Amino acid sequence: MASFLALCFLLLPGVLSVAPTCPDRCDCQHAQHLLCANRGLRAVPRAQLPKQADILVFSLAGNFIQNITASDFSRLDGLIRLDLQYNQIRKIHPKAFEKLSKLQELYLGNNLISVISPGTLQSLNKLKILYGNSNDIKEIKPDCFGNLGSIIKLRLDGNSIEKLPDAVFKSLPNLMYLHLESNKLRYIHRNAFINLTNLRFLNLSGNKQKSIRNILTFASLPSLTTLLVSENEIQHIGNHVFQNLKKLLKLSLSNNKISQVELGALKGLSNVRELLMDGNELVHIRSGVLDPLERVEEIDFSRNRIYSVEPSAFTQLQHLKILKLEKNQLTSLSGGIFALNGVLYNLYLNGNNWTCDCNILEFKQWMNTAHSQGRLLTVFVQCQHPDALKGRYLDYLNSTQLLYQGNNSQPCGSDSPVESLAGGLLESAFPRKELNIQADQGGVGQTKKPHAEKNKRKSVVPRSGSPTSAAGKTDTGRVVSSSRLGFPLVTDPCQFNRHFIVNVTVSQVSSNSATITWSVREHRSAPASAVSFRVLFDRFGQAVRFPRFVYVRDGGHSVTLHELSVDTTYMVCVEGLVGGAVCQVASRDHCTGVVTLGTVRSGADLQLVTMAMLGVNALLLLLVGGAWMGRRLRRRLQHRKSAVHVRHMYSTRRPFRAMAPAVASDFTSYQSSRPRMCPVDEGDLIEFPCDRFLDNNSTRRDEALQRFTD
């Protein structure tokens, strides 16, 4: 025994030497992860770890470590990820990472590093991610990244780097993401990015660049897809500086001091999808400047000083979807400026100095047409001039409220002043005193002339009141010739809908179609304000709405709606288009309801099938229940037969039964103490264990007979 104890004491130091110990204040629950983040450490912890080569992840983030010595990671040669972020590291020994030949991710961000000695990263030939952001690095040299050909992502943002020397990244041919934002870059050598043929993302935002002039600066970046140069001090962009960026998709020049873009500055950017130039000092957008952007989908010119845009500035941008021009100094836009931008659906124009006069009338008409066709979202053009319209939105103004510039009484497109407000009273070319407004059967006001004027028109309008066509034939619902000055002048679609469209009726309704007809009161229109119609119909009272339009050509007054849903209620409205403009107010004065007919359903057949199925199910239940009851009855009958057989064999009933009290008490005690093993339905039978029936021992049977005899 003594020798055994002595042997154990001899082996104990060896056992302790190989026992794994976790560094103090660290977490070693995972065999390959050593987690010491946010533990208040002031130095890299050391511990006796028997299999240090198996540790893959070592996290020391969020501590107070100041220096990295040469031996801190000397035994962790199997590390793949090392995290040293958010410490107070100032100095890294040149041989600190010498043994980490398998390291793939190194995070040194958010420390106090000012310089990385040459050769410090020399042995990290498998490194793919290197974070050196948010330090105090002032200068980087080509020898800092020697032998790092595997790096894919490099972050040097948030430092104090002032210049990028010649071929500083030449040893990083596989680099794809480069962050240099939030530095103090003033000078970039024309060959600084040479050999970065795989670079896709380059961020130079938040620096001190004043211009981009050299054609060779980005010439060696054929794979670049995102270039961010925002929040610099750029005033000038030279011609052809982006011509080699054939794969560029996003270019950001936001928040600089650019006042003018040269005609060839954007040449070569045929694949750009997004151009951001907001927050600059642009004052004018010239024609041809944006033409190289053949596939651009979004352009942001907001927060500049733009006061004019040439009409053909956007004509070549066939894929333009979003255009932002808010918070500039625009007063008007040409009516055809976006005529060729067929997919434009989001236009930001708020925050400008809009003057709502006749110069903006064509643009308003284009905007109304685009709205009516569902191609454009709501555009907020808030008038600032004249004072009478200040604060009003252009969408809700009619053409008669727009006056010639410098003339406060002459409306656009008219030789005489006509006031036509949506929802107001009509005025014809005659003075107000000659009008007499009275309600007709439909409750819509109509004009009547004095007796003399009425006599002059007897040859034109029959006594029945039906309009007469230019050929002299009566055609109910047709618009008469606009050359008759006696009819009211129509310039506003809202008033036209309310006062001129009458008798909207529904006919020929079926399960999937209906015919809508309407009549039009006598009116006249200017040559530039031709009247046409469209029919809006939508499911009434449905949670999901899907309004649709049917446009009526050639002045027709009826339309047949097809492909309607069965047994569905529709709201149908007839609207007028005056000069291509539509009314933005959803009035119900010219609407009606449609209820489609239902189809003949085989309700009786369905009911019969349902009843038959219920009968079959009931029959099946009866059959299953009968089988179950029959089986149960058979079992009970068999049970009763066996019980009767036992009763006849072992019944204690006798004609003359006289048992002494002592025997009865003994019998009772015996009956209560024996286990119930053979169930018998008769309550007055003596119950015996089943083995008693099968026992052929004559001695026991005789003893029982002697004890319980009558």
From TrEMBL:
Cross-referenced CDD domains: FN3 (cd00063)
InterPro entries according to UniProt: Cys-rich_flank_reg_C, FN3_dom, FN3_sf, Ig-like_fold, Leu-rich_rpt, Leu-rich_rpt_typical-subtyp, LRR_dom_sf
N-terminal signal peptide: 1-17
Positions of the Fibronectin type-III domain: 500-599
Keywords, in A-Z order: Disulfide bond, Leucine-rich repeat, Membrane, Repeat, Signal, Transmembrane, Transmembrane helix
Stretches for region Disordered: 440-477
Ranges that cross the membrane: 608-630
Top-rank taxon, per record: Eukaryota
Classification via SUPFAM superfamilies: Fibronectin type III, L domain-like
A GO cellular component annotation in the UniProt record: plasma membrane
Biased composition, class Basic residues, residue ranges: 448-460
Record's protein name: TLR4 interactor with leucine rich repeats
Organism ancestry: Eukaryota, Metazoa, Chordata, Craniata, Vertebrata
